[in-house]
Protein: Trehalose 6-phosphate phosphatase
Organism: Ilex paraguariensis
Amino acid sequence: MRPLFSSSSVFFSFIAHKLLYLFQCRVCCFEQREEMTNQNVVVSDEESAIITLTLTNSSLFSPAVTKPVAIPGGYVTISRKKLLNKLGGGGGEGTKINAWVDSMRASSPTRKSAPALTLSSETEDQKSWILHHPSALSMFVEIMNASKGKQIVMFLDYDGTLSPIVEDPDRAFMSKEMRETVRDVAKYFPTAVVSGRCRDKVYSFIGLSELYYAGSHGMDIKGPTTGHKYKKGNQSVLCQPAREFLPMINEVYKALLEETKSIPGATVENNKFCISVHFRCVDEKKWDALAEQVRSVLKDYPKLRLTQGRKVLEVRPTIKWDKGKALEFLLKSLGYANSSNVFPIFIGDDRTDEDGFKVLRKRGQGIGILVSKVPKETNASYSLQEPSEVMYFLQRLVEWKRSLLSRH
Protein backbone atom coordinates (compact mmCIF):
# COMPACT_ATOMS: atom_id res chain seq x y z
CA MET A 1 0.00 0.00 0.00
CA ARG A 2 1.32 3.46 -0.88
CA PRO A 3 1.90 5.62 2.20
CA LEU A 4 -0.44 8.58 2.62
CA PHE A 5 2.48 10.99 3.17
CA SER A 6 5.77 10.79 1.31
CA SER A 7 7.75 12.38 4.13
CA SER A 8 7.62 12.22 7.91
CA SER A 9 7.84 16.02 8.19
CA VAL A 10 4.59 16.44 6.30
CA PHE A 11 2.96 13.71 8.45
CA PHE A 12 3.90 15.41 11.71
CA SER A 13 2.88 18.76 10.22
CA PHE A 14 -0.52 17.21 9.49
CA ILE A 15 -0.93 15.96 13.08
CA ALA A 16 0.14 19.31 14.54
CA HIS A 17 -2.20 21.12 12.17
CA LYS A 18 -5.18 19.06 13.27
CA LEU A 19 -4.52 19.81 16.95
CA LEU A 20 -4.07 23.49 16.14
CA TYR A 21 -7.23 23.52 14.05
CA LEU A 22 -9.39 22.40 17.01
CA PHE A 23 -8.08 25.34 19.00
CA GLN A 24 -8.48 27.76 16.07
CA CYS A 25 -12.12 26.79 15.66
CA ARG A 26 -12.79 28.19 19.12
CA VAL A 27 -10.69 31.29 18.42
CA CYS A 28 -12.49 31.78 15.12
CA CYS A 29 -15.85 31.75 16.86
CA PHE A 30 -14.58 34.22 19.45
CA GLU A 31 -13.34 36.65 16.78
CA GLN A 32 -16.51 36.34 14.77
CA ARG A 33 -18.70 37.09 17.81
CA GLU A 34 -16.37 39.96 18.70
CA GLU A 35 -16.62 41.58 15.26
CA MET A 36 -20.36 41.01 15.01
CA THR A 37 -20.87 42.60 18.42
CA ASN A 38 -18.73 45.65 17.79
CA GLN A 39 -19.62 46.27 14.16
CA ASN A 40 -22.71 44.46 12.98
CA VAL A 41 -22.24 45.51 9.37
CA VAL A 42 -20.36 43.91 6.48
CA VAL A 43 -19.80 45.91 3.31
CA SER A 44 -20.78 44.04 0.19
CA ASP A 45 -19.86 44.31 -3.49
CA GLU A 46 -23.42 43.44 -4.45
CA GLU A 47 -26.27 45.84 -5.23
CA SER A 48 -28.43 44.54 -2.40
CA ALA A 49 -29.57 46.87 0.36
CA ILE A 50 -29.64 44.76 3.54
CA ILE A 51 -29.12 40.99 3.60
CA THR A 52 -27.80 38.41 6.02
CA LEU A 53 -24.70 36.35 5.39
CA THR A 54 -26.39 32.96 5.76
CA LEU A 55 -26.48 31.30 2.33
CA THR A 56 -28.93 29.06 0.60
CA ASN A 57 -27.79 25.65 -0.63
CA SER A 58 -25.55 25.80 -3.68
CA SER A 59 -23.09 23.59 -5.49
CA LEU A 60 -19.44 23.94 -4.50
CA PHE A 61 -18.62 24.53 -8.16
CA SER A 62 -21.68 26.62 -8.99
CA PRO A 63 -20.91 29.34 -11.55
CA ALA A 64 -23.11 31.81 -9.70
CA VAL A 65 -23.30 32.88 -6.07
CA THR A 66 -26.64 32.17 -4.44
CA LYS A 67 -28.29 35.20 -2.83
CA PRO A 68 -28.28 35.05 0.98
CA VAL A 69 -31.58 34.82 2.83
CA ALA A 70 -32.55 36.56 6.05
CA ILE A 71 -32.76 34.70 9.34
CA PRO A 72 -33.36 35.98 12.85
CA GLY A 73 -30.17 36.86 14.70
CA GLY A 74 -28.05 37.07 11.55
CA TYR A 75 -25.86 40.05 10.87
CA VAL A 76 -26.36 42.31 7.89
CA THR A 77 -24.47 43.52 4.87
CA ILE A 78 -24.95 46.74 2.97
CA SER A 79 -23.92 47.53 -0.55
CA ARG A 80 -20.37 48.81 -0.64
CA LYS A 81 -21.10 50.26 -4.06
CA LYS A 82 -24.04 52.28 -2.75
CA LEU A 83 -22.12 53.42 0.30
CA LEU A 84 -19.13 54.63 -1.70
CA ASN A 85 -21.42 56.27 -4.26
CA LYS A 86 -22.43 58.69 -1.53
CA LEU A 87 -18.90 60.04 -1.63
CA GLY A 88 -19.40 61.41 -5.09
CA GLY A 89 -23.11 62.23 -4.86
CA GLY A 90 -25.10 65.02 -3.33
CA GLY A 91 -25.68 65.80 0.30
CA GLY A 92 -22.76 68.15 0.91
CA GLU A 93 -19.21 67.60 2.04
CA GLY A 94 -20.23 66.55 5.55
CA THR A 95 -22.39 63.74 4.17
CA LYS A 96 -19.58 62.53 1.93
CA ILE A 97 -17.06 62.41 4.76
CA ASN A 98 -19.54 60.67 7.08
CA ALA A 99 -20.27 58.06 4.42
CA TRP A 100 -16.56 57.57 3.86
CA VAL A 101 -15.85 57.05 7.56
CA ASP A 102 -18.86 54.72 7.87
CA SER A 103 -17.40 52.65 5.06
CA MET A 104 -13.99 52.60 6.78
CA ARG A 105 -15.59 51.40 10.01
CA ALA A 106 -17.71 48.80 8.22
CA SER A 107 -14.73 47.25 6.45
CA SER A 108 -12.37 47.57 9.43
CA PRO A 109 -14.23 46.98 12.71
CA THR A 110 -12.34 47.81 15.88
CA ARG A 111 -11.77 44.85 18.17
CA LYS A 112 -12.77 45.18 21.82
CA SER A 113 -12.85 42.82 24.76
CA ALA A 114 -15.55 40.15 24.69
CA PRO A 115 -16.76 37.46 27.08
CA ALA A 116 -14.89 34.18 27.15
CA LEU A 117 -16.09 31.76 24.49
CA THR A 118 -17.78 28.55 25.56
CA LEU A 119 -17.95 25.36 23.53
CA SER A 120 -21.67 25.91 22.92
CA SER A 121 -21.37 29.50 21.68
CA GLU A 122 -20.67 28.82 18.01
CA THR A 123 -23.35 30.69 16.07
CA GLU A 124 -25.64 29.45 13.37
CA ASP A 125 -24.08 32.02 11.03
CA GLN A 126 -20.65 30.50 11.58
CA LYS A 127 -21.90 26.97 10.99
CA SER A 128 -23.80 27.99 7.86
CA TRP A 129 -20.85 29.89 6.43
CA ILE A 130 -18.46 26.98 6.99
CA LEU A 131 -21.02 24.64 5.45
CA HIS A 132 -21.10 26.67 2.24
CA HIS A 133 -17.42 27.67 2.27
CA PRO A 134 -15.78 24.52 3.68
CA SER A 135 -12.11 24.30 4.53
CA ALA A 136 -9.96 23.69 1.46
CA LEU A 137 -7.95 21.33 3.66
CA SER A 138 -10.87 19.12 4.59
CA MET A 139 -12.02 19.16 0.94
CA PHE A 140 -8.54 18.70 -0.53
CA VAL A 141 -9.24 15.29 -2.10
CA GLU A 142 -12.43 16.56 -3.74
CA ILE A 143 -10.60 19.60 -5.12
CA MET A 144 -7.83 17.47 -6.59
CA ASN A 145 -10.37 15.10 -8.12
CA ALA A 146 -11.98 18.07 -9.86
CA SER A 147 -8.59 19.10 -11.29
CA LYS A 148 -7.73 15.71 -12.81
CA GLY A 149 -6.65 15.95 -16.42
CA LYS A 150 -6.27 19.73 -16.17
CA GLN A 151 -3.35 22.09 -15.68
CA ILE A 152 -3.45 23.72 -12.25
CA VAL A 153 -2.41 27.38 -12.29
CA MET A 154 -1.84 29.08 -8.93
CA PHE A 155 -2.75 32.70 -8.14
CA LEU A 156 -1.74 33.94 -4.69
CA ASP A 157 -2.31 37.20 -2.86
CA TYR A 158 0.57 38.30 -0.62
CA ASP A 159 -0.47 40.21 2.52
CA GLY A 160 -2.69 38.06 4.75
CA THR A 161 -2.19 35.05 2.46
CA LEU A 162 1.53 34.33 2.16
CA SER A 163 2.47 36.65 5.02
CA PRO A 164 0.63 37.70 8.18
CA ILE A 165 -1.09 41.08 8.42
CA VAL A 166 1.21 43.36 10.43
CA GLU A 167 0.97 46.93 11.70
CA ASP A 168 3.97 48.10 9.67
CA PRO A 169 3.42 47.24 5.98
CA ASP A 170 7.17 47.45 5.37
CA ARG A 171 7.67 44.49 7.73
CA ALA A 172 5.21 42.06 6.17
CA PHE A 173 7.82 39.35 5.76
CA MET A 174 6.96 35.79 4.76
CA SER A 175 8.54 32.92 6.66
CA LYS A 176 11.40 30.89 5.22
CA GLU A 177 9.18 27.81 5.25
CA MET A 178 6.49 29.63 3.27
CA ARG A 179 9.09 30.79 0.74
CA GLU A 180 10.35 27.24 0.23
CA THR A 181 6.78 26.01 -0.07
CA VAL A 182 5.97 28.57 -2.80
CA ARG A 183 9.25 27.65 -4.56
CA ASP A 184 8.16 24.00 -4.56
CA VAL A 185 4.71 24.89 -5.91
CA ALA A 186 6.30 26.84 -8.80
CA LYS A 187 8.32 23.73 -9.77
CA TYR A 188 5.11 21.92 -10.70
CA PHE A 189 2.56 24.63 -11.54
CA PRO A 190 2.62 28.08 -13.18
CA THR A 191 2.43 30.36 -10.13
CA ALA A 192 1.59 34.06 -9.91
CA VAL A 193 1.53 36.45 -6.97
CA VAL A 194 -1.21 39.03 -7.49
CA SER A 195 -0.96 41.87 -4.98
CA GLY A 196 -1.96 45.47 -4.40
CA ARG A 197 1.66 46.17 -3.54
CA CYS A 198 4.22 47.57 -5.92
CA ARG A 199 5.59 44.68 -8.00
CA ASP A 200 9.19 45.41 -7.01
CA LYS A 201 8.17 45.52 -3.33
CA VAL A 202 6.46 42.14 -3.51
CA TYR A 203 9.48 40.68 -5.29
CA SER A 204 11.77 42.02 -2.54
CA PHE A 205 9.63 40.21 0.04
CA ILE A 206 9.47 36.90 -1.85
CA GLY A 207 12.70 36.83 -3.83
CA LEU A 208 11.72 34.01 -6.20
CA SER A 209 12.49 34.72 -9.85
CA GLU A 210 10.51 31.73 -11.11
CA LEU A 211 7.13 33.34 -10.34
CA TYR A 212 4.84 35.65 -12.27
CA TYR A 213 4.36 38.92 -10.38
CA ALA A 214 1.29 41.14 -10.76
CA GLY A 215 1.65 44.25 -8.61
CA SER A 216 -0.59 47.31 -8.16
CA HIS A 217 -3.72 45.12 -8.20
CA GLY A 218 -2.63 43.57 -11.47
CA MET A 219 -1.69 46.81 -13.25
CA ASP A 220 2.01 45.87 -13.36
CA ILE A 221 2.68 42.31 -14.56
CA LYS A 222 5.97 40.62 -15.34
CA GLY A 223 6.79 36.99 -16.08
CA PRO A 224 9.49 34.81 -14.47
CA THR A 225 13.12 35.28 -15.42
CA THR A 226 14.29 31.84 -14.33
CA GLY A 227 12.87 28.47 -13.40
CA HIS A 228 10.67 25.88 -15.04
CA LYS A 229 9.76 26.51 -18.66
CA TYR A 230 6.10 25.73 -19.19
CA LYS A 231 5.10 24.17 -22.46
CA LYS A 232 2.45 26.70 -23.38
CA GLY A 233 2.37 30.47 -23.56
CA ASN A 234 4.87 33.28 -23.24
CA GLN A 235 6.97 33.68 -20.09
CA SER A 236 8.48 37.07 -20.93
CA VAL A 237 5.19 38.89 -20.37
CA LEU A 238 4.97 42.52 -19.41
CA CYS A 239 1.69 44.36 -18.95
CA GLN A 240 1.26 47.90 -17.61
CA PRO A 241 -2.19 49.16 -18.69
CA ALA A 242 -2.04 52.23 -16.41
CA ARG A 243 1.37 53.54 -17.50
CA GLU A 244 -0.07 56.91 -18.57
CA PHE A 245 -1.17 57.53 -14.95
CA LEU A 246 2.35 57.34 -13.48
CA PRO A 247 2.97 61.13 -13.35
CA MET A 248 -0.44 61.69 -11.74
CA ILE A 249 0.08 58.89 -9.19
CA ASN A 250 3.45 60.33 -8.17
CA GLU A 251 1.93 63.80 -7.83
CA VAL A 252 -0.93 62.55 -5.65
CA TYR A 253 1.44 60.44 -3.56
CA LYS A 254 3.50 63.51 -2.65
CA ALA A 255 0.34 65.47 -1.86
CA LEU A 256 -1.00 62.72 0.39
CA LEU A 257 2.32 62.42 2.21
CA GLU A 258 2.18 66.13 3.02
CA GLU A 259 -1.54 66.23 3.80
CA THR A 260 -1.66 63.22 6.14
CA LYS A 261 1.55 63.80 8.12
CA SER A 262 -0.46 65.37 10.95
CA ILE A 263 -2.34 62.08 11.58
CA PRO A 264 -0.35 59.82 13.94
CA GLY A 265 -0.06 56.28 12.58
CA ALA A 266 -1.14 57.09 9.01
CA THR A 267 1.15 55.61 6.37
CA VAL A 268 1.12 56.44 2.66
CA GLU A 269 2.64 53.81 0.36
CA ASN A 270 3.46 54.37 -3.30
CA ASN A 271 2.66 51.12 -5.13
CA LYS A 272 3.67 52.58 -8.52
CA PHE A 273 0.28 52.41 -10.25
CA CYS A 274 -1.80 52.92 -7.11
CA ILE A 275 -1.43 54.46 -3.66
CA SER A 276 -2.25 52.88 -0.30
CA VAL A 277 -3.21 55.00 2.71
CA HIS A 278 -2.89 52.65 5.69
CA PHE A 279 -4.91 53.49 8.80
CA ARG A 280 -4.32 50.29 10.79
CA CYS A 281 -2.32 52.25 13.38
CA VAL A 282 -4.57 55.34 13.38
CA ASP A 283 -6.84 56.03 16.35
CA GLU A 284 -10.44 55.54 15.18
CA LYS A 285 -11.25 59.03 16.46
CA LYS A 286 -8.91 60.35 13.77
CA TRP A 287 -10.47 58.44 10.88
CA ASP A 288 -12.79 61.29 9.95
CA ALA A 289 -9.88 63.72 9.81
CA LEU A 290 -7.90 61.28 7.65
CA ALA A 291 -10.89 60.82 5.32
CA GLU A 292 -11.21 64.59 4.97
CA GLN A 293 -7.53 64.93 4.12
CA VAL A 294 -7.65 62.19 1.48
CA ARG A 295 -10.82 63.72 0.02
CA SER A 296 -9.22 67.16 -0.16
CA VAL A 297 -6.43 65.74 -2.32
CA LEU A 298 -8.55 63.51 -4.57
CA LYS A 299 -11.21 66.10 -5.40
CA ASP A 300 -8.90 67.58 -8.01
CA TYR A 301 -8.20 64.21 -9.68
CA PRO A 302 -11.40 62.81 -11.26
CA LYS A 303 -9.39 60.17 -13.14
CA LEU A 304 -8.52 58.48 -9.85
CA ARG A 305 -10.92 56.43 -7.73
CA LEU A 306 -11.00 55.21 -4.16
CA THR A 307 -11.35 51.58 -3.12
CA GLN A 308 -10.91 49.92 0.26
CA GLY A 309 -9.18 46.93 1.77
CA ARG A 310 -8.34 45.77 5.28
CA LYS A 311 -7.66 49.07 7.08
CA VAL A 312 -6.33 50.65 3.93
CA LEU A 313 -7.67 53.19 1.45
CA GLU A 314 -6.56 52.52 -2.11
CA VAL A 315 -6.22 55.29 -4.71
CA ARG A 316 -6.33 53.77 -8.19
CA PRO A 317 -6.77 54.86 -11.83
CA THR A 318 -10.33 54.68 -13.16
CA ILE A 319 -9.42 52.15 -15.86
CA LYS A 320 -11.30 48.86 -15.89
CA TRP A 321 -8.48 46.72 -14.58
CA ASP A 322 -8.23 44.68 -11.40
CA LYS A 323 -6.99 41.33 -10.08
CA GLY A 324 -9.62 39.53 -12.14
CA LYS A 325 -8.37 41.15 -15.34
CA ALA A 326 -4.82 40.25 -14.34
CA LEU A 327 -5.88 36.62 -13.85
CA GLU A 328 -7.43 36.54 -17.34
CA PHE A 329 -4.35 38.18 -18.88
CA LEU A 330 -2.02 35.66 -17.27
CA LEU A 331 -4.14 32.69 -18.33
CA LYS A 332 -4.06 34.03 -21.88
CA SER A 333 -0.28 34.54 -21.68
CA LEU A 334 0.06 30.92 -20.55
CA GLY A 335 -2.00 29.73 -23.52
CA TYR A 336 -5.19 28.93 -21.58
CA ALA A 337 -7.46 31.77 -22.70
CA ASN A 338 -10.18 29.52 -24.11
CA SER A 339 -8.99 26.19 -22.80
CA SER A 340 -11.16 23.74 -20.89
CA ASN A 341 -8.05 21.94 -19.64
CA VAL A 342 -7.04 24.46 -17.01
CA PHE A 343 -7.85 24.59 -13.30
CA PRO A 344 -6.96 27.99 -11.79
CA ILE A 345 -6.78 28.26 -7.98
CA PHE A 346 -6.94 31.78 -6.55
CA ILE A 347 -6.15 32.25 -2.84
CA GLY A 348 -6.63 35.64 -1.19
CA ASP A 349 -7.91 37.34 1.93
CA ASP A 350 -8.96 40.83 0.87
CA ARG A 351 -11.89 42.52 -0.85
CA THR A 352 -9.78 43.16 -3.95
CA ASP A 353 -9.31 39.39 -4.34
CA GLU A 354 -13.05 39.08 -4.96
CA ASP A 355 -12.41 40.31 -8.51
CA GLY A 356 -10.35 37.16 -9.08
CA PHE A 357 -12.96 34.93 -7.43
CA LYS A 358 -15.67 36.44 -9.65
CA VAL A 359 -13.72 35.69 -12.83
CA LEU A 360 -13.40 32.03 -11.84
CA ARG A 361 -17.13 31.87 -11.09
CA LYS A 362 -17.91 33.41 -14.46
CA ARG A 363 -15.55 31.05 -16.30
CA GLY A 364 -16.91 28.05 -14.43
CA GLN A 365 -13.32 26.89 -13.98
CA GLY A 366 -11.14 26.36 -10.96
CA ILE A 367 -11.84 27.61 -7.44
CA GLY A 368 -11.43 30.62 -5.21
CA ILE A 369 -10.24 30.19 -1.62
CA LEU A 370 -10.86 32.99 0.90
CA VAL A 371 -8.41 33.34 3.79
CA SER A 372 -10.46 34.49 6.78
CA LYS A 373 -11.19 33.57 10.39
CA VAL A 374 -14.62 35.21 10.29
CA PRO A 375 -17.58 34.85 7.90
CA LYS A 376 -17.52 37.26 4.96
CA GLU A 377 -19.66 37.59 1.90
CA THR A 378 -17.51 36.13 -0.86
CA ASN A 379 -17.47 34.60 -4.32
CA ALA A 380 -14.90 32.05 -3.16
CA SER A 381 -15.98 28.41 -2.87
CA TYR A 382 -13.67 27.40 -0.04
CA SER A 383 -11.91 28.91 2.94
CA LEU A 384 -8.69 28.77 4.93
CA GLN A 385 -8.23 30.54 8.24
CA GLU A 386 -4.73 32.05 8.03
CA PRO A 387 -1.38 31.94 6.20
CA SER A 388 -0.27 28.83 8.11
CA GLU A 389 -3.22 26.95 6.62
CA VAL A 390 -2.39 28.36 3.18
CA MET A 391 1.12 26.97 3.54
CA TYR A 392 -0.17 23.56 4.58
CA PHE A 393 -2.60 23.51 1.63
CA LEU A 394 0.27 24.32 -0.75
CA GLN A 395 2.46 21.64 0.83
CA ARG A 396 -0.27 19.07 0.33
CA LEU A 397 -0.61 20.22 -3.28
CA VAL A 398 3.10 19.58 -3.86
CA GLU A 399 2.91 16.18 -2.15
CA TRP A 400 -0.11 15.28 -4.31
CA LYS A 401 1.75 16.20 -7.51
CA ARG A 402 4.88 14.31 -6.51
CA SER A 403 2.77 11.27 -5.74
CA LEU A 404 1.20 11.41 -9.21
CA LEU A 405 4.58 11.73 -10.91
CA SER A 406 6.05 8.82 -8.93
CA ARG A 407 3.43 6.50 -10.42
CA HIS A 408 4.65 7.10 -13.94
